[in-house]
Amino acid sequence: MATPRATIPLKYQPRRYYCTDTVNSDCQKGFISAAGLNHHYNAVHKHHTTRPSRPQQHPWQPTGQHDGSGDDNTEPQGAYYPGTPVDLNGDDLPEGASPPKPNTSSKRAWHPFESRAHFELADFIFRQNEMPGAQIDELMHIWASMPGQAGTPPYANHEHLYSTIDAISEGDAPWTSFSMESVEAGGSGGPSWKHNDTYEVVFCDPQILLNHQLSNPGFKNHIDYSPRLVFGEKGQRVWSDLMTGNWAWNQCNELSKDPDNHGAMFVPIILGSDKTTVSVATGNNEYYPLYISAGNVHNAMRRAHGEAVSLLGFLSIPKTDKEFEADPEFRTFRRHLFHTSLEAIFHSMRPAMTKPQSVKCADGHYRRAIYGLGPYIADYPEQALLACIVQGWCPKCTAHRTHLDHDPNAILRNHEYTQLLMDSFASHVLWQKYGIVDDILPFTASFPRANIHELIAPDILHQIIKGTFKDHLVSWVETYLKKHYKNDFAAVLADIDRRIAVVPPFPGLRRFSQGRGFKQWTGNDSKALMKVYLPAIAGYVPNEMLQALSAFMDFCYIVRQSSLGEADLEALDKALQRFETHRSIFEAEGIHSDGISIPRIHALQHYHEAIELFGAPNGLSTSIVESKHIHAVKRPYRRSNKNEEMAQVLLVNQRQDKLARFQAECLAEGRELTIDNLSLLNSLFSGLLDKPLIPQDNVHEDTSFQDDPYLQEAEDDDSERVDAVVQLAHKPSEMGQDIGHPELSDLVSIFLFQQRNPGVDVPDISKCPKAIDPGYSFSSAVATFYAPSDLSGANGMHRQCIHASPSWRNGAPHYDCVFVEKDPTLPGFQGLYVAQVLLFFSFHYRNVHYPCALVQWFTPIGNEPCNNTGMWKVEHEYDEYGDHLVTHLIGIYGDEYIPPDLHYSDSLAAFGSFYVNKYSDYHAFGLAF
């Protein structure tokens, strides 16, 4: 029988309800119903409720010498830079003074647009929908022909729309360029790069872009105007955003030596660059974008793929004939071109790096700002290019390439030390003994307080996820299997693939229907494989290999947190030490018999120091740069006509930036925002749900939207968003029959007795109350909880859907597993139950509403996690609790091959025991230790 669903309204319904959250006043999203606004508020603006404090995964135990203020190596000292507001003349304002009001009296409220609707239409067409010009013209023709339009559409054609966008003054940053050529240009003979090519670099004024970010009102609550010290449990130091790190304090200490700088704000300049290909078919259309971000903006805004990262320009890519690609002279030219270009782009900012200049900030105030080159986001090949070192060496320290992790003479690199070596040794000695490329210093040597070897940012994506895990550990395991199993290698690999394929579903988990054997890997593929890889290879590899991977996974999950305390750094060091100890199995088995000396793996040793300097690494990962490629390069390229496409790409970016900034300014000023029945909204907010587990509303306007960047929604990887199915008017006895559990009626009776008689032994079932009124059953529920990580939204909120459906999307059953809190005073998994949800339902008894879940319990195997995988084991319990948070179980596969016809939906019934997968997401990692 078809499931009853809400009727889609055929009549147009205007948005009458607007968000008025006081903390995020720039939101002001509109909805057609109060239910939609309720849904939005709970998802985006509902602040996490205080729950009973659970023991920390990494509890802090301060030593006798520690007073919560750091030690000699980490404690920031010196002048505090408060970022004091000033007036337009640069004089300090008194404390509590209001910012100057913007002068908009001479313009219409939505100038250059006719109205808010005209702006929203332009923004929807150009920035959100990316509609081609011809389709815009067609839309306007259709619009004009509609009754009541009098033949006048909002825009005459696409050129009218484009010219209106171009007239926006907010966010304007003109493009400029310069050209360079080889000193032998104009000659004849030899490779073309010497004589024929001119190399053009296109860029914006970096100071203009930084000032746009600093003054963006959308960042008002997500920006630091000064370095800050953050302390957590028992006074331990905590690092999160860039301005919580020691590097920002060190920069201010240097600047404070000049009294004229006192009271100014320091603005770190975060840079990132990475080549990208926009035409896969030809493989010849490469771009070299350069991005910029103000380090004052919080990491969450930078990860949200919004306006916190701007396209600064495009670097030139010198090319030559294949016969000259390996020519040392060509490589030298390419290196000099790269560093000369960066130096030229920032040449105009040199004065602003030593003397303060007035800049408008997100809160409307003006402040005096001093800029400085900050962390640089890049993959290893580009790190080597930036540091002017030989491939295979570390860009941050002098450890020898043959024993990177165990060089007792290694020290941190800096420009002065490099120059001293250049003055002392010949080029071949520099190359072979020190890994230094002669005759060039990095571009940062030309700017104050900048050392590229210190500024190279940790790269979670390429050093940890794709580098150490996918490119090395997974490859080494496969090499071991091939060497050890020989003739059975193909069968073993196929069984590992089946193990991965039958993993039960989990919100946000990518499904590997054919296992891990596919050609082109993305960072998301590697992240997903990490979550399910350990149980898949258990039994096929030595225990020490499992221990090595488990230690590495712990390191990865710790380092990707949004904030890390001193206890986390201690745990990080211990995980790295375990990994370095257990990875010797790969040397003993002949996989790496000459020792492991790999730059990306060696980079893990620098993470502790990098976190203390720059805060949480997830705010500086190359994943931020690669995500920006999509919006700044690839999509604009596809919108071009492929004829002189660079100019079109630049124009698209300029218009997108103007629209985004215009929207931020308008929302901040509250232009023409009409709210229907504000008192109704206030009363609505006062009664919102406090529990993290709620049935999904069956409201059509809200089931498809995601309020990024404030919320991260996790759904099955192969799914689209769907409504929760609500079954109506069933008695508990009928619900039980429908799902094959006729005992449900008796269980409800026992539950009612326990609820109404706490602490009393349950009598004979015949004496327990009976629920006779019809109730409601739900196919899923939503858990919204506070779990800050690199996958959560900007406010640290995360939302997961818990399924309990006998037929999910007309297919196999889908019954998720959850954690249920047992005792919040016990650490980790010891304070939790694990259960599989078979049914969500609710009913009324004597005017009391009871939301319930029918579950199948699991019981732990042993009193501690598995020594090899680091995960707890549980088994079915065949033989009255707290909040539900979804969890993930993976079968303990045993010694026999997985049957080829086993479906993933049957996994929880097919196996007798399971791993509690603490690597399913970062929330589970923090709970199930």
Number of strands: 29
What kind of sheet is the major sheet? 9 strands, antiparallel
Q: Low-confidence runs (pLDDT<50, min 5 residues)? A: 1-6, 65-75, 672-729
Strand content: 15-25%
Number of continuous helical runs: 28
Shape: globular
Which structural class should the secondary elements be placed in?
Answer: alpha+beta
Radius of gyration: 30 Å
Report, as a whole number of angstroms, the end-to-end distance. Answer: 44 Å
Quick structural gist:
With about 950 residues, this protein is α+β, with helices and mostly antiparallel strands.
Describe it.
The protein is an alpha+beta fold and 929 residues long. The protein is built from 28 helices and 29 strands. Strands 18, 19, 23, 24, 25, 26, 27, 28 and 29 form a 9-stranded antiparallel beta sheet that branches.
Task: Give the SSE layout.
Blueprint lengths: L16 E2 L11 E2 L2 H12 L39 E2 L29 H13 L4 H13 L12 H9 L8 E7 L10 H4 L2 E7 L1 H9 L15 E2 L5 E3 L6 H10 L9 E9 L2 E2 L8 E2 L1 E6 L4 H5 L6 E5 L13 H18 L11 E4 L5 E12 L2 H8 L27 H10 L2 H8 L17 H4 L4 H26 L3 H13 L21 H15 L5 H17 L4 E2 H17 L1 H5 L10 H4 L4 H8 L7 H18 L5 H25 L8 H9 L6 E3 L15 E4 L11 E5 L1 H7 L5 H13 L18 E4 L1 E7 L10 E9 L8 E2 L1 E5 L10 E14 L2 E13 L12 E4 L7 E4 L1 E3 L15 H4 L2 E4 L5 H6 L2
Parallel strand pairs: 8-14, 17-21
Antiparallel strand pairs: 1-2, 3-14, 4-5, 5-12, 6-7, 7-15, 8-11, 9-10, 11-12, 13-14, 16-20, 18-19, 19-24, 20-21, 21-22, 23-24, 23-27, 24-25, 25-26, 26-29, 28-29
